[in-house]
Amino acid sequence: MNHEALINKHDPIEILLAEDDADDSLFFSEALAQIPVLTNLTVVNDGVEAINYINNPSSTKPHIIFLDLNMPKMKGLDCLEQIRKNKLYNETPCVIITTSASPNDISKSYSNGANLYFAKPVSMIDLVRMIDKALRVNWKHFFPPFEDTFFVTERRI
User: Fold this and answer.
1) For residue 74, what are the CA distances in angstroms to 18, 22, 32, 122, 149?
2) Percent of the chain beyond pLDDT 90?
3) Which residues pair with 65 in a beta bridge?
4) Is-contact 65 93, C-beta < 8 A?
5) How confident is the prediction for the chain on average, in pLDDT?
6) Which of 3, 56, 68, 149 is the most buried if burial means most Cβ atoms within 10 Å?
7) What is the per-residue pLDDT across 72-104, written as a single tens digit (0 to 9) for each?
8) How many CB atoms lie within 10 A of CB 29?
9) Mean pLDDT of 128-156
10) Where do the Response regulatory domain residues begin and end (predicted)?
11) DSSP state for residue 15 in the 8-state scheme
12) CB-based burial, 39-60: b 16+ in 10 Å, e otherwise
């Protein structure tokens, strides 16, 4: 796969968001709408739905996946691990977006194959910036291997 900034490569950018909180999903969708790029957003409510989505041959393959860590049925870390085991998705950029700023969660996320880790911002402006940053990353510097990669952890107060 030739990785580069998604915002320059795909039209539209296919985005999968795994988020169990309806308000956070709406917040994400509204922030995404403020970025001047064509996107298709698919929202699933938990890790099981995310895995079912990517394993469904009729599903559109996302160019990037955003995962919450704290979801019912299957946690984000377990979901991420399953995504990385799937040969079709082992190089799909995965961004953790969660309320946890725990060093342990951050470390485990990167160990399981996360490309970026963001603490959920509280303002719309910060969420727009976070999503925009993820869409503008030059992903060729992130694959492979994960452990030799520079990662961004951002928390704005």
Assistant:
1) 11, 17, 25, 25, 26
2) 54
3) 16, 94
4) yes
5) 84
6) 68
7) 899 999 999 999 999 889 889 999 998 888 889
8) 15
9) 62
10) 14-135
11) E
12) bebbbbbbbbbbbebbeeeeee
Looking at the DSSP bridge assignments, the partners of residue 67 are: 18, 96
Question: CA quadruple 6, 133, 82, 75: dihedral positive or negative?
Answer: negative
State if pTM tops 0.70: yes
> Domain map of the chain by residue range?
6-154
Beta carbons of 156 and 136 less than 8 angstroms apart: no
pLDDT in tens, 37-52: 889 999 999 999 999 9
Residue 4: both structure tokens together: 């580069």
CA distance 43 to 86: 20
**Residue 91: predicted pLDDT:** 86
Task: Report pLDDT for 121.
Answer: 81
CATH class assigned to 6-154: alpha beta
Q: Which residue has the higher pLDDT, 145 or 37?
A: 37
CA neighbours closer than 13 Å in the CB half-sphere of residue 114: 26
Amino acid at residue number 16? L
The letter for the amino acid at 107 is S
Residue 45 and residue 155: Cα distance in Å, rounded?
Answer: 24
